[in-house]
Specification:
Shape: globular
Distance between the termini: 39 Å
Strand order of the largest sheet: 1-14-15-2-16-17-18-19
Structural class: alpha+beta
Helix content: 25-40%
Mean pLDDT: 86
Number of strands: 23
Low-confidence stretches: 372-382
Length: 491
């Protein structure tokens, strides 16, 4: 149904539309409840469903843990002293890795994709149990000896000196995540330390972090979800829900305790001077914005960090084994070679093959594929361009100029209005805004060389602003050359 938001009156058509929305939501809730009962043996009433899927995922995970290890297990995975170190440890927490290693066209290659990459990391590994203890290291050599002997030292805060062409460890420059060469302060888990030492990288231990044993706490939760994914078609509710139910869990362990609270106050009579200082008097009324600390939230920052770190480690190992990697995302590698063709969890499969792949940046690329389409008269292979562009999703078109127009100029987009914007601008919450979105980002992870290969940024040597200027020039050149070539093809 197409809605005209300029119409003020409520028609029967709108009423029917809203009722249909409610019916759809009710069906979805019932599907979720039946899903949990059938596959996880977990029963919940619709009125008790939490507000978010990650929260529901965490509840079911807790129930599985208590069945397997008893009620006391929650006290072993959540450290009562975690508030003392969470903020300091969080600065070493990074997400996935997206990089371009070669801006030349990759011909006749593969988009190699991991099967449930993060789920596999959760399933394959044992996780450190609380309580945790963080101690300074006065002698790095002695701490290495302790680290080798004591398996309860599960992580260390270190200085690492990397000279790899494709470094493993990330840092931030101007709030941008990059993987540079040079000296970096970081938190390394045991497997990362072992791997870096095997590559002859220098490490200095600054602090050691100990735990109280290990358990494979995510094993059953992931095993159930992956079995569902493997048993159902990728377009089914069961497949999709199992996928997001599994993946939404690990980030919940790194949830921030500080939350913003927004209150609209109609009457300020009786409020103290201290309370009045926190209130803004706008032309729309009185508004109070404050931050609250939720100390009751159950968090284990080490779990989220361990999962994301070991996911990057596994990705790095596969990149290094690949003969000629062109591009990587958090759970995939684009290369000329087919790395593996497996259906097993944690292993690689070819998501698809392609005639030609052209990277333009992080999560931005052009893929040319040849597909055979059924035609009642003539069956011929059709060359297709599939374009992914950060912030815009995917486009499929035979006209490359159509893509270029979006890359170089604004593109119209729609979005629902947010609560604060609705309040400040006195606009209805159901309003859809139409606006022009401009692309302003440029590839900023590695230096693009004159031959369109890339090299790692070198700390204390390279200038980050020069990296941006250099890469802007080459990206524009790649676009212009590609456009000229395809214009010849489609004449």
């Amino acid at each position: 149904m197409s809605i005209d938001y300029n119409i003020k009156e409520i028609t029967q058509e709108y009423i029917d539309y809203c009722f249909r929305d409610i019916e759809i939501i009710e069906i979805a809730f019932k599907k979720i409840i039946n899903f949990l009962k059938d596959f996880y043996n977990y029963e919940i009433h619709i009125k008790n469903l939490p507000l978010t899927l990650p929260s529901l995922s965490k509840r079911v995970f807790h129930e599985i843990l208590k069945r397997n290890y008893g009620k006391d297990i929650l006290g072993k995975i959540y450290d009562i002293h975690s508030k003392d170190y969470e903020l300091r440890i969080r600065e070493y927490y990074y997400g996935g890795r997206v990089e371009v290693f070669n801006f030349n066209c990759c011909f006749n290659g593969y988009y190699n994709d991991f099967n449930s990459h993060y789920g596999a990391i959760m399933k394959e590994n044992e996780f450190p149990l609380a309580p945790y203890n963080i101690e300074p290291c006065n002698n790095s050599n002695k701490c290495f000896l302790d680290w080798k002997k004591n398996k309860d030292i599960f992580a260390c805060i270190c200085n690492v000196y990397e000279n790899l062409e494709i470094p493993l460890i990330a840092t931030k420059i101007n709030e941008k995540l990059i993987f540079p060469k040079g000296k970096k302060k970081c938190l390394l888990f045991r497997k990362e330390i072992e791997y870096l030492l095997s590559l002859n990288q220098k490490i200095e231990i600054l602090e050691i972090i100990t735990c109280n044993g290990y358990l494979p706490i995510f094993n059953e939760f992931v095993k159930i979800a992956f079995k569902i994914k493997s048993s159902y078609d990728s377009n089914s509710f069961e497949y999709y829900f199992a996928k997001i139910f599994m993946l939404s869990l690990y980030g919940k362990f790194a949830e921030k305790r500080e939350k913003e609270k927004i209150e609209i106050i109609n009457d300020i009579k009786g409020l103290s001077e201290l309370e009045l200082k926190e209130i803004s008097n706008t032309d729309k009324g009185y508004l109070k914005r404050s931050n609250e600390i939720h100390n009751t939230i159950k968090i284990n920052i080490f779990f989220s960090m361990l999962i994301s770190s070991l996911a990057r480690l596994k990705l790095h190992k596969e990149i290094m084994k690949s003969k000629n990697p062109f591009y990587c995302d958090s759970d995939s590698i684009v290369s000329i070679d087919l790395i593996e063709n497996s259906k097993e969890i944690g292993h690689l499969k070819p998501e698809f093959s392609f005639n030609r792949f052209q990277a333009l940046g992080c999560k931005e690329y052009i893929i040319e594929k040849t597909n055979v389409r059924a035609n009642p008269i003539i069956k011929v292979p059709l060359q297709e361009l599939e374009v992914k562009m950060k912030g815009f999703g995917r486009l499929t078109t035979n006209n490359f100029n159509f893509f270029i127009s979006h890359f170089k100029s604004a593109k119209k987009q729609n979005r629902m209005i947010g609560f604060m914007e609705s309040y400040n601008r006195e606009l209805p919450l159901n309003l859809v805004l139409v606006y022009n979105k401009f692309k302003r980002s440029v590839y900023d992870k590695r230096f693009i060389n004159s031959d369109l290969t890339t090299r790692a940024f070198e700390l204390n040597k390279d200038d980050y602003n020069k990296l941006i200027q250099n890469n802007e020039y080459y990206i524009q050149k790649i676009l212009n050359d590609y456009q000229s070539e395809l214009n010849e093809v489609y004449k």
